[in-house]
Design brief:
- By secondary structure, the chain is α+β, with helices and mostly antiparallel strands.
- The protein contains eleven helices and nine strands.
- Helix content is 40%, strand content 19%.
- Strand 6 and strand 7 form a beta hairpin.
- The longest helix is centred in the N-terminal third of the chain and has 37 residues.
- It is elongated.
- It starts with a helix and ends with a helix.
- The mean pLDDT is 86.
- Tetramer of two alpha and two beta subunits.
- InterPro entries: aa-tRNA-synth_II, aa-tRNA-synth_II/BPL/LPL, Phe-tRNA-synth_IIc_asu, Phe-tRNA_ligase_II_N, Phe_tRNA_ligase_alpha1_bac, Phenylalanyl-tRNA_Synthase, tRNA-bd_arm.
- Belongs to the class-II aminoacyl-tRNA synthetase family. Phe-tRNA synthetase alpha subunit type 1 subfamily.
Amino acid sequence: MKEKLSKIMDEALSQIEASGELEKLNDIRVAFLGKKGELTSVLKGMKDVAPEDRPKVGQLVNEARTKIEAKLEEKKETFEKKLLEEKLKSETIDVTLPGKKLSQGHRHPNTITLEEVEDIFVGMGYQVVEGPEVEYDYYNFEALNIPANHPAKDEQDTFYITKDILLRSQTSSVQVHEMEKGKLPIRMIAPGRVFRSDEVDATHSPTFHQVEGLVIDKNITFADLKGTLQEFAVRLFGEGTKVKFRPHHFQFTEPSAEMDVTCFKCGGKGCRFCKGSGWVEILGCGMVHPHVLEMSGIDPEKYTGFAFGIGLERIALFNYEIDDMRLLYENDTRFLKQF
């Protein structure tokens, strides 16, 4: 029995020493110390040992178990130490190397411009109101006094989803929603994205942004419109900015006008940017058409109002002297880092 135990122990120690990986040690532990292992089988055969020899055999089995477990633990520590060294070696960080600089994002030129516009009008008592980009034809056209046969309703200009639903081509639809609420007076601007079937070039895009404004109250006149927009222009482009109103035609305003501001590049003297005129067009505006008020449930005999529409990209191009609108959408970090 003593020779058998010695042979089992020598074989176990030999296999432990020869093992080349941590997982192999578990197989050895099971083979020799498990429920069906070599040493366990010796213990099961104790019934065949003379009673007076059983204590001695039990002692020898325990000694063998202790030596095998100690060797297993020693080998395990060796493997773990080696693995740790390899891991530390592979994950070593050279603290003398320069650190990686994380690029920090910032606001887009459109966002900067919109915040400036909103700050100006909020400072004058206006509310910022938003509305749906997918709109009914009624709110986008009919309620704004644009009949069914108007050229603006052609599919070549507007993205129709169904006969009655479309991607809004102007944020004026938000004004109609506000007028229908019947909460007067109204002083609001409606910034947002709009969609038109335009070819992409330096000054056009199928998607762009507008900021439309609306004021409805008693005794509102064209003088209020001119004073408001002049104050807006001065705050946006700086002291000394002058404005000029030219007669125009819009279906939803009467009378209507386009507003120019003095060229901020040449100060009104005339240059290549303003094509020698000294003025640049900035927005369209006018007094709200009485029929538009009627369709929204507002009595045009008691209330009047004015509206205006600004192309946000146009303001951004002027502010930062950008000559191609496509630069705003191409996400070229070399361009965007300038702002």
